[in-house]
Specification:
Blueprint lengths: L3 H19 L8 E7 L4 E2 L2 E2 L1 H16 L4 H6 L8 E4 L12 H13 L7 E5 L2 H6 L2 H8 L2 E4 L5 E14 L14 E8 H6 L2 E11 L3 E2 L2 H8 L5 H4 L2 H12 L8 E12 L11 E10 L2 H14 L10 H12 L10 E5 L2
Parallel strand pairs: 1-13, 4-5, 4-9, 5-6, 9-11
Antiparallel strand pairs: 1-12, 2-3, 7-8, 9-10, 11-12
């Protein structure tokens, strides 16, 4: 697979051809982010199911411009689709993507006629989902749970970069004889065979290297193997994350991104640290994952005086690279915030 420059050139050429031949729509001048806020949505770090359902209702109706939740979802998905709701479950029930938000989305999808068995809530590891309460959610609605690593990886679909990675158990090419290194990160079969549409729901949760465990990082690193070769180098992440997200198995299938900003954990990563958590009481809806991640990094910065994530070179580069690939807008001046009543 090509590097950033080649991928950018291919993307530009493809975009020009599409616009010339079929009236394709380029990246809009501004990203629109719809913000549902309820000052009583969270109490003692516990979200109110009733209020979150109302916030999701307002958000999806505003995002699509349709009069009802069912009609709104019907503009994004069809009953025949197999919809993968990507979450971040590793930090646990309170700090990862909250099951109450996912439940509200599932309720809307079912109202729109999507069969429960066509809805897959997924993260990298099924064990993280079960540990974070998603087993109860699956039983309630009859939806499926899946881990991208547990599903295995597709030999024919991969991202290739110059840096060699030392393979671990579970990586596709770890099996067999020979040296356990590879330049390829294979895409999960969950994405190449099972899922046709993706809804990203990621929390407002700090990541030390890339600023936020957001939509770009969460989907890209959650869907491939041999990803550890990037994790020890913020500079490599800044290049690999946007390039992987730009693969057709990822970006082409995303219909909506929702930032679970009910809480904001602004220190640490991977595990829940409630003493470094602010109550922010928002859900944000957008087609632009870059804009949402840029806003999340801006919010995290507000709680980190003197140690701002946006000042880190790799954080800026990741967002800039994503913008170069036309995944969205990284400049706050190009983001239109629409606060819902």
């Amino acid at each position: 697979m090509p590097g950033l420059v080649s991928l950018l050139l291919s993307s530009v050429c493809a975009g020009l051809l599409a616009q010339a031949g079929s009236g394709g729509v380029p990246l809009p001048a501004k990203a629109r982010v719809y913000v549902a806020k309820d000052l009583e949505a969270v109490s003692a770090f516990e979200p109110s199911s009733e209020r979150v359902i109302d916030m999701c209702r307002k958000g999806i109706i505003a995002f699509t411009g349709k009069p009802s939740v069912a009609q709104a979802w019907q503009t994004l998905v069809q009953p025949s689709d197999r919809i993968g709701i990507k979450v971040y479950a590793s930090p646990g029930r309170l700090s990862g993507t909250r099951a109450v938000v996912v439940s509200a989305v599932i309720q809307g999808l079912i109202e729109a006629g999507v069969p429960p068995h066509h809805i897959i809530v997924w993260d990298r590891h099924l064990s993280d989902l079960r540990r974070s309460g998603y087993g109860e959610l699956a039983e309630k609605w009859g939806v499926l749970l899946a881990g991208s690593a547990d599903a295995g990886f597709d030999e024919a679909a991969f991202y290739e970069a110059a840096v060699l990675g030392r393979l671990i158990w579970g990586d596709l090419q770890f099996r067999g004889e020979g040296e356990k290194v590879s330049r390829r990160s294979h895409i999960s079969r969950l994405l190449t065979r099972d899922i046709t549409k993706i809804i990203n729901i990621h929390p407002l949760f700090n990541h030390n290297a890339v600023g936020v465990y957001g939509h770009l990082y969460g989907l890209a690193m959650g869907g491939v193997d041999n990803q550890l070769r990037f994790e020890n180098s913020p500079a490599l992440l800044a290049e690999a994350v946007p390039e992987i997200y730009a693969q057709k198995e990822f970006s082409d299938r995303v219909v909506l991104n929702i930032t679970d900003a009910l809480l904001c954990q602004y220190e640490g990563e991977q595990r829940s640290l409630l003493h470094y958590t602010a109550v922010t009481q928002e859900l944000r809806f957008s087609s632009d994952p870059v804009a949402l991640d840029a806003l999340s990094i801006h919010d995290i910065d507000q709680f980190r005086p003197g140690r701002k994530q946006s000042e880190k070179k790799a954080v800026r580069q990741l967002l800039e690279n994503a913008s170069l690939l036309e995944l969205g807008h990284s400049e706050l001046a190009r983001i239109e915030l629409i606060e819902l009543p």
